[in-house]
Task: inverse folding
């Protein structure tokens, strides 16, 4: 039994686990698994070249197979933000939206937001209803509603708010 190899793999496993514990970013855990597999082979008397090969192979397999599954599982818990829930909502255009002029403002639930049209060539007039398509920074990217609709706060049949 090669004590130097045992200490090498044991130290490498410990260092990689410590780095993982400090970063919690799923960066070194896969290599710690490879080092642990190599350590086990050392106890079984395998030559160092085989230990090194198993370290590389197990690390790579763990990285390629389990990392996507773990990332997917971790993403599930993050949930949707309040901004994500805004997409698809209708807003009142309070200032003409014209991407070429850099103008546009909409109102949603009493709050005013800078807005830009999803289509650069499109101009959405003040008083129209638009739909939020995405959010870029502090700007809502909107598109016109397909058919003319009344703003929820306006009297029925009054058309666009001016």
Result:
């Amino acid at each position: 039994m090669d004590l130097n190899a045992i200490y090498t793999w044991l130290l490498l496993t410990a260092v990689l686990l410590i780095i993982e514990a400090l970063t919690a970013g799923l960066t070194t855990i896969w290599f710690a698994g490879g080092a642990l597999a190599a350590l086990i082979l050392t106890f079984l008397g395998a030559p160092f070249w085989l230990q090194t090969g198993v370290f590389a192979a197990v690390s790579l397999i763990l990285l390629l197979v389990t990392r996507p599954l773990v990332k997917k599982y971790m993403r599930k818990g993050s949930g949707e933000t309040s901004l994500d829930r805004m997409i698809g909502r209708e807003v009142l255009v309070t200032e003409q939206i014209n991407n070429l002029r850099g103008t546009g403002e909409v109102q949603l639930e009493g709050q005013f937001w800078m807005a830009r049209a999803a289509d650069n060539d499109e101009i959405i007039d003040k008083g129209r209803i638009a739909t939020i398509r995405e959010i870029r920074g502090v700007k809502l990217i909107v598109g016109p509603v397909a058919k003319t609709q009344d703003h929820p706060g306006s009297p029925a049949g009054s058309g666009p708010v001016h």
Observations:
- The radius of gyration is 29 Å.
- The longest helix spans residues 48-76.
- Residues 84-144 form a domain with the OB fold (Dihydrolipoamide Acetyltransferase, E2P) fold (CATH 2.40.50.140).
